[in-house]
Each structure stands twice: as C-alpha cells, then as structure tokens.
C-alpha cells in the first residue's frame, strides 16, 4: 500500500532508557497487520528462557494508543513453529490509557532453552478498534432460534 496522504491514526511512543538505540516498532511489509516488537534486554545480558518457563520481556517504549483503539500483542508464528516460543496471555491487551512500558509475556513451550537477545523481534502488535458499551441489567433475555444451544449444538 502506498500512502500518499497519511491519514492513519498516530501512535505516539516514548523511548525509555533501556530502549536507547532500538529500532522503532515497525510494519515489516506494506500490508502487515502487526508491528514487530523488539526485546529491550541488555546487550550483555541476554535472557534465557528455559523450557516450560515464562518471562516478561521489556520493549523499551511507552505507547500512547489512540482513543478508541487497543493494541493486541500476539506471537510470531516463526518463533512458535521453530522454537515453541509464544505469548502466554495471547492476545495481550494494551489499554489506550496505559502509560507504563509495554512488555511481552513469553513462554517457552519447546524443549530447548531459548535465548532472547537485544533487538530480537519477539512478538507483534496489532492496533484494533474497540467499542465500550453501556451495561444495563434486564430481567429476561429476548428469545432467539438458537436459544441456549451452544458448544456444538448445531452439529459437527
Ligand atoms: O501483554 C501485555 C499485557 C498487558 N500489558 C500492560 C498494558 C495493559 O494496559 C496493562 C494491563 O493489562 P491487563 O488488563 O491484561 O492485565 P490485568 O491483569 O487486568 O492488570 P490490570 O489490573 O492492571 O488491568 O498491562 C503489557 O504491557 N503487555
Ligand atoms: Mg485489566
């Protein structure tokens, strides 16, 4: 997609000291749904994730998600397929009013230790619109053809 007049919503980022020198999160291709997030671990202190273990990996940035949007932190399929590395809480939710450092909760479901080095693209983040609703308690729900049927009620 060529963007002649960029009317996309703006994502403001604040770089933290541990993010010094890291590339900004970026779309790797013109039609990518997600921006890759990079690990802000220290160069001389890579993080090793043992099989079955989880870790919160810093990204080095505070994000200001535009109002009316959220960010979803999702695994990268390559890391999942090759190494069994995925996001434990997938999709992670970044609220638009969150002003802390964005972190990625990785888990190693593989059978080898996995080393996370500085700048490694560890996850991807999709910006998506969200709707907040008004909550109203009512005494009886409306009737539908499905009714309470679920969990396979329509057959295989
Ligand atoms: O993968 C994630 C998930 C969450 N967060 C941050 C941003 C998000 O806005 C905040 C809260 O996340 P969530 O609502 O999922 O966690 P919670 O357990 O409900 O915490 P809280 O009580 O702070 O909402 O934590 C991350 O940095 N990475
Ligand atoms: Mg919450």
UniProtKB/TrEMBL annotation:
Domain dUTPase-like: 23-155
InterPro entries, A to Z: dUTPase, dUTPase-like, dUTPase-like_sf, dUTPase_trimeric
Recorded metabolic or biological pathway in which this protein acts: Pyrimidine metabolism; dUMP biosynthesis; dUMP from dCTP (dUTP route): step 2/2
CDD domains referenced in this protein's UniProt entry, alphabetically: trimeric_dUTPase (cd07557)
One Gene Ontology molecular-function label: magnesium ion binding
Coiled-coil stretches: none
Reaction(s) this enzyme catalyzes, per UniProt: dUTP + H2O = dUMP + diphosphate + H(+)
Record: residues binding substrate: 76-78, 89, 93-95
Keywords assigned by UniProt, alphabetized: Hydrolase, Magnesium, Metal-binding, Nucleotide metabolism
E.C. no: 3.6.1.23
Known cofactor(s): Mg(2+)
Signal peptide: none
GO biological process, one term: dUTP catabolic process
PANTHER family: DEOXYURIDINE 5'-TRIPHOSPHATE NUCLEOTIDOHYDROLASE (PTHR11241)
Function per UniProt: This enzyme is involved in nucleotide metabolism: it produces dUMP, the immediate precursor of thymidine nucleotides and it decreases the intracellular concentration of dUTP so that uracil cannot be incorporated into DNA.
Protein name as annotated: Deoxyuridine 5'-triphosphate nucleotidohydrolase
Species name: Rhizobium mongolense USDA 1844
Gene: dut
